[in-house]
Amino acid sequence: MFVHVEDVFDPEAGYQVNELLKFSNLLNMEVTLITSNYMGPLEKKPDPEKD
Description:
Blueprint: E1 2-8, H1 16-26, E2 31-36
Parallel strand pairs: 1-2
């Protein structure tokens, strides 16, 4: 099992962690992501229906 810890996770972004999680899933690896949903006052607000 792998654990990834990120300060913020945006599922629509093209960050490295997004690609890492996607390909880990394709390889049937068990992965857990620990993150926050706080994105700060200047960034977009999380959409509970998507995020």
